[in-house]
Recover the amino acids of this structure.
């Protein structure tokens, strides 16, 4: 274990889980990550290994076949997995969000049907809010669901769907009311649980998953669009059984998703620091390792401090959510700080590598392309600052 980013107060079970995951990362992910990433190849063998470890059911309650672990345990596992390859953490993140939403908001029938299979990784989850014409403005969603007897008919186009091709269950947010009739946008949205076949093309009648979106980084994991054209969904696949609660359900899922993105930022930053501090001791200039030059020591000092600070804020946000308390302030702060610090630590490690950092033979090149996704995933820095600012004003409101 490294000296940085340690977590106090963990149970023996948590430490054992983290040790197992770290060993898996060191042996099964790090040796192949860069090669698979350069080929944009889905890590099938790695995913099968994670299934065997029980990672897909980590937070699913034991009564549904999972391990019943906390958000903190999951976030620390994500941090370790991301240290190996960020795309692998993306494969389990949306699955985890959907499982969390089912656990918190699903009907008992929905929980009994989906969660045991999700715990085994037999059903794999994806999560879909964004659309081509909107980013963080969820109220502008245009995908619509209209009830027709015991079914809903869904039409619309979704964007940036992680695991769009490999998933078999997608939680999709659609409009089920009309704001022009006096209904507030956030009170006219419903989450639908859509089962589908894995793959691309028409994966069930009325539902098409086009091919993968070609991305700068975050490769290996499939990112897609989702097109609904007369898609019929039974009314019993409305999450929680009641329409028009989807916005609140999705925002609850996004809170844990932001903790996950913070954990990913911590993991990538840790790996970048490891690469930077190792290279600084190997590379010689002017007769000595560059680690002995003050300019490089200053960089390493800043990098290590940022790794430590981001990890502490991520842990705090996860523990707050686990306590049952509202954590949008802590999650927003953790996501904002971890993603920004991750970008800075990766860039400093890139600079330490000099010209070799620009070569695809060196791992830091991959991290340099992966880090930017964390600046926009689960809400941009600007959105996080809006959330943080509003919540601080609530906490520090002065008397009129």
């Amino acid at each position: 274990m490294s000296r940085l980013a340690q977590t106090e107060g963990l149970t023996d079970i948590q430490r054992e889980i983290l040790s197992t995951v770290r060993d898996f990362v060191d042996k099964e992910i790090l040796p192949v990550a860069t090669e698979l990433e350069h080929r944009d190849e889905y890590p099938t063998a790695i995913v099968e290994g994670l299934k065997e470890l029980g990672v897909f059911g980590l937070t699913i309650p034991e009564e549904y076949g999972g391990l019943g672990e906390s958000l903190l345990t999951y976030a620390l596992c994500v941090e370790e997995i991301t240290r190996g390859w960020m795309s692998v953490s993306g494969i389990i993140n949306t699955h985890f969000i959907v499982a969390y939403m089912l656990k918190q908001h699903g009907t008992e029938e929905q929980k009994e049907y989906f969660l045991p299979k999700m715990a085994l990784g037999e059903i794999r989850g994806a999560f879909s809010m964004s659309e081509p014409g909107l980013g963080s403005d969820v109220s502008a969603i245009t995908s619509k669901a209209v009830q027709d007897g015991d079914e809903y008919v869904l039409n619309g186009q979704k964007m940036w769907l992680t695991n769009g091709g490999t998933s078999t269950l997608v939680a999709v947010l659609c409009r089920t009311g009309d704001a022009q009739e006096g209904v507030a946008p956030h009170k006219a949205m419903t989450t639908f649980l859509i089962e589908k076949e894995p793959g691309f093309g028409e994966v069930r009648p009325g539902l098409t998953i086009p091919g993968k979106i070609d991305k700068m980084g975050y490769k290996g994991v499939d990112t897609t669009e989702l097109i609904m054209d007369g898609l019929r969904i039974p009314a019993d696949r409305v999450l929680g059984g009641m329409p028009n609660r989807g916005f609140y359900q999705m925002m609850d899922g996004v809170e844990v998703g932001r903790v996950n993105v913070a954990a990913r930022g911590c993991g990538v930053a840790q790996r970048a620091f490891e690469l930077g501090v190792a290279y600084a001791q190997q590379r010689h200039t002017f007769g000595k390792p560059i680690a002995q030059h003050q300019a490089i020591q200053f960089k390493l000092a800043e990098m290590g401090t940022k790794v430590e600070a981001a990890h502490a804020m991520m842990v705090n946000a996860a523990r707050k959510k686990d306590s049952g308390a509202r954590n949008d302030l802590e999650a927003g702060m953790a996501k904002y700080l971890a993603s920004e610090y991750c970008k800075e630590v990766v860039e400093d490690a890139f600079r330490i590598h000099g010209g070799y950092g620009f070569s695809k033979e060196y791992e830091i090149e991959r991290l340099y392309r992966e880090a930017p996704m964390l600046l926009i995933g689960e809400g941009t820095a600007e959105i996080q600052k809006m959330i943080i600012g509003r919540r601080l004003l609530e906490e520090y409101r002065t008397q009129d």
